[in-house]
Each structure stands twice: as structure tokens, then as C-alpha cells.
Amino acid sequence: MNKLRTVIVDDHPIVIEGLKTLLSNEDNLEIVGTFSNGAELLSYFNSNPVDLVLLDVTLPDIGGMELCKLVKEESPDTIILIVSNHTERSIIMQTIQNGANGYLLKNSSLDELRQCIAEAVKGNICYSKEVMEIISRPTKNELRGIPQLTRREKQILYMLAQGKTSQNIAQELFLSSLTVDTHRRNLMQKFEAKNVAELIAAGHQQQLL
Amino acid sequence: MNKLRTVIVDDHPIVIEGLKTLLSNEDNLEIVGTFSNGAELLSYFNSNPVDLVLLDVTLPDIGGMELCKLVKEESPDTIILIVSNHTERSIIMQTIQNGANGYLLKNSSLDELRQCIAEAVKGNICYSKEVMEIISRPTKNELRGIPQLTRREKQILYMLAQGKTSQNIAQELFLSSLTVDTHRRNLMQKFEAKNVAELIAAGHQQQLL
DNA sequence: TGAAAAATACCTAAAAACCAGTAGAAAAAA
DNA sequence: TTTTTTCTACTGGTTTTTAGGTATTTTTCA
């Protein structure tokens, strides 16, 4: 196993130095670059392989959310760990939805950081303790964000995820395929999805599948 | 919160009695039926609401796997907990893929059972301790089952999950849409998926998304 | 350096999905 | 018993996907 080629992206020099120092003695990773904004990261990223990105959410130019997406599109295997001060549940969830592999607060200990990296390498999503607490208490507002599906819609979502076509489903449920299409459309609207692919992805992210 | 309308499906009368007795003092659930095969369950299920199914994998008629699917298609909210003796990883994973919400071995304690039900009600998938151990040590054979994707394929899978069309992706990556189509086809072949919906679902189940 | 794997690109045609709107019947909630 | 929601179904059209192929050019790596 090679050392993880690691970069740090944060607009606070102190944080960069802090992380750098903390991680300087880790023998499973190597810090190959530090950047104070998104553009710098992207330009480096275009010509160099990166295994691990420690990323702040608030950056002067491109937001951390957007960066997550861009990085993951370019290189889905690159691990992104968010290191941020934001404690809002919605922000945490959003970063994960955009492809981040974990979320830490800036006051995390080296141990937590180490552990998160290890988990992320294994392919798991990992939160520091405090973050874990935040996300494990759901809010009403949060719930409002999850589309409320009718029984039929859930059923059809479920069958879609199994690769069934509208006609298949219509036959199995003794419906017109036009009806199934309508449900499907309503589902896509509720999830703000452009097509089935996104619908299924959203369903999974919402833990409905 | 009403009591969970619970049914037990197992072809061993002893197991049925055992579970019944174990759960008789639980005040959050009520056993409304016990069946010794799949057909019985289905016929009951067609005319009665069921919140929780305790299901054996090996049944004389319809397999537990198939039952999972059928039940979930009819009523995605119904919780299915597998109570089985099978310790093969592949079987465990398959039941979960077919929609089961948890997997217990028959030697589980009442406590574990209770806990599993509670977790499943929360929407989590839950395994008893021993099962947890089994599934947390991946085998080589297991790994072979996970499609090996090329970088490009992963990238395109990722973008598909965001609802992008082949053309969208082609534009973003400066490719011909025909190329993207080919990748997409190869992806579907590797995942044995019939269409994007199933592809994305499989990607999620394989933790690639 | 040579073979294998990956990435790229093309053709055709049918099938399926998607868009935008409407609307009646049934069931659930007020 | 209204009102609202859910489920149902339709028209008519456009776009995208999918299924059969084939085939060249890069990379990668032994």
C-alpha cells in the first residue's frame, strides 16, 4: 500500500498548518499540497493524482459542496473528508450527498482524524463523535425535507429500483402503464429528479431503498 | 404508536412456538398470525395489514428470498426480519438485497431480537452480533462478486446517478455520446442490470455510490 | 516490445422514458 | 359532509435509452 497522496484545502492558514503538523508523523499518508481556495485545488487536481482531500466547506471562491461534486466526478476514488466548523445538520448531510466520505469538526482530535481516514479508506462514511451526535437527532425541518411518498409511490419506487419498466410494473399491479408513468413523474417531481437514475439515487440517499 | 402487527413464518413448529413465547410479553407488538409456509403468509397478507414479518429462509414452498421481494413490493413499509440458521455471507446479503430489514440467527437472545426490531422500526438494517461478525469479514469470493470497474466507468456511473444523460456526460467529458453509451452498456453488463434504474440501485448496494 | 485491457467511436432501429397538461373516481381527512 | 389527497387514466409529442453489432486507438504492464 502506497502512502495516501493528501491535500488540504482551507482558507485559514492556521488550520492548514495545524492539520499539516498533526498529520506529519502519519506514515500512511503524505501531504502533497495545501491550498487556500477551490480553484487552486482543481488546477492541481487536473494534473496530479490525489487520494485524500481534507476540505473546508466555506471557501473564498468555489464552495466545498461544489468541489466535492467536481472532485468526485473526476475521480470517484478520491476520498474527501470535510473538516469544518459548521454544525448544521443540513450542511453535513449535503456534503455527504455531494460525495464526501466523512465529516469532522475542526476541534477533532488527531485520533478521530486518524480513525476517520482509516474508515474512509475502507469505504465507509465516517463522522467524528460530535458530528455523529448532531446527525443522530433528526429535526422536524429535516423531516420536512424528505419527500412524503404515498404507499403506491413507495411501491413503484421500489419496483423501479429492481429494473422493472413501467409496463412491467403496470402488469404486475394490474394498472395501466400510463398510471405508472404518472406515479413515476410524481416521484421524480417530489425528489426533484431529472430521470430514474437520479430518482433511485435520491431514494437511496433518503434511505428509502 | 399502535402495536406492531406481527406474523411468524417458519416451517419448524418449535421455532414458531419459541418465538411466540419469547415475544408474548412484548408490549409493542402483537402476534397476529403464524404460518408454516410462504403461500399461507401471502394469502393472509393479501387481506390483512402486517407491520412485521419474522421470516425463515428455507421454507417448503416459496423461498424466503422470493417472499421478501413479494412482500416488499406489496407493502414497502412492512418490516422483514430474517430469522435463520444460515451463516453464509452470500445468503445474508441476498436477503438484504431482496428487501429484508435485518438478519438474526435462531440462537439469538430475546434482547437481540428486541433490539433488532427496534432498529428496524427506526428504518435501519440490523444484524445480530454473530451475523455482524460474519458479514464484516469479506471473503475473496465475495470480492470477486463486486464488479471491477475502470476509472471511466466509475466516473460515468457517478454522473449517471446525478441524473445526467449520456449527452450531458459526453459534453462534460468531451466525449462522443456514443462512447458514453458504450461505457454505460458495459456498466450494465457488469452489474447484470437491465436499465439505469437497476444499475444505480446496484451501485448503491455495492457501496460504490 | 507485444499482448491484453481500457477507452474511444460508429450504425440502426425498436423500446422505453420523459414532458406537459388534464381530469374523474375513490379514499382519507377535516 | 365537504375538502383534500391519492390513485387512476388519457392525449400527443419529443428525447433518451437500450440492444444488436463492429472496430480503431491508447494505455498498461509483463
TrEMBL record, chains A, B:
<dbReference type="InterPro" id="IPR011006">
    <property type="entry name" value="CheY-like_superfamily"/>
</dbReference>
<dbReference type="GO" id="GO:0000160">
    <property type="term" value="P:phosphorelay signal transduction system"/>
</dbReference>
<dbReference type="GO" id="GO:0003677">
    <property type="term" value="F:DNA binding"/>
</dbReference>
<dbReference type="InterPro" id="IPR001789">
    <property type="entry name" value="Sig_transdc_resp-reg_receiver"/>
</dbReference>
<feature type="modified residue" description="4-aspartylphosphate">
    <location>
        <position position="56"/>
    </location>
</feature>
<protein>
    <submittedName>
        <fullName>LuxR family transcriptional regulator</fullName>
    </submittedName>
</protein>
<dbReference type="Pfam" id="PF00196">
    <property type="entry name" value="GerE"/>
</dbReference>
<dbReference type="InterPro" id="IPR039420">
    <property type="entry name" value="WalR-like"/>
</dbReference>
<feature type="domain" description="HTH luxR-type">
    <location>
        <begin position="142"/>
        <end position="207"/>
    </location>
</feature>
<dbReference type="GO" id="GO:0006355">
    <property type="term" value="P:regulation of DNA-templated transcription"/>
</dbReference>
<dbReference type="InterPro" id="IPR058245">
    <property type="entry name" value="NreC/VraR/RcsB-like_REC"/>
</dbReference>
<dbReference type="InterPro" id="IPR016032">
    <property type="entry name" value="Sig_transdc_resp-reg_C-effctor"/>
</dbReference>
<keyword id="KW-0238">DNA-binding</keyword>
<keyword id="KW-0805">Transcription regulation</keyword>
<feature type="domain" description="Response regulatory">
    <location>
        <begin position="5"/>
        <end position="121"/>
    </location>
</feature>
<keyword id="KW-0804">Transcription</keyword>
<dbReference type="Pfam" id="PF00072">
    <property type="entry name" value="Response_reg"/>
</dbReference>
<dbReference type="InterPro" id="IPR000792">
    <property type="entry name" value="Tscrpt_reg_LuxR_C"/>
</dbReference>
<keyword id="KW-0597">Phosphoprotein</keyword>
